[in-house]
Amino acid sequence: MKNFRIIPRLEVKTKHLIKGIQMEGLRKVGCPVEFSIKYSKEKADEIFYDDIVASLYDRPYDLKMINKISKNLDIPLIVGGGIKSLSTAIEVFKNGADRVSVNSAALLKPSLLREIAKIFGSQSVAVQLQIKKLNESYEVFAESGRERKNIDLFDWIKIVQKFGVGEIICIFIDRDGMEGVADIEILKKIRNQTKVQLLYGGGISKYDEIKLIKSLGFNGVCISTSLHFNKMKLNEINRDI
Which domains, ranges and CATH numbers included, belong to the chain? Predict the structure, then answer.
């Protein structure tokens, strides 16, 4: 695994690649399969396939699409959104995922993380933190930022690391689809309290922002809007970072 990874994040809803602002106002962007192939050819380090409604609507994954994407990639595939049980994770791995990302189900049952890690290894389990600032504190949310859980961000970081995750993916809801990354001091605090691999997502629109996140000790970034709409180029990121 590279020290710092550039990961396109594909938010998927009913077979379509979509993108919104602060996880709302979704619009269609294109075909997830085509975009994953494009990013693979452009030397992305991984692809993050994130079904943003599977958990919300309690519907099964589109395993055929995951399988099709994985067969066209020569880079790792992270699959998230709707991993609600060990059996779901097993099916997703069978269809080509290299790693699963769990959020809503982990908030209900943290031990699920350990169950998956016990079979597939901690390196195969990530937990996604959907983070929102409320007053002067930060909390984690479920269901693509729709459901408040009244759980402090840093309390949750401590808990998930006890359950064997190999990676934490921080998605800042307030920065999603916007320009500008989260507060530097909060990112420093997250890095200081995290012992596993750490990814950042939300508001990346400039090459210098990626350099900043790397300098803070993060292990990679998840980018969607800026790549989907050609505001940034993977070859230029790889050249400059």
Answer: 5-234 (3.20.20.70)
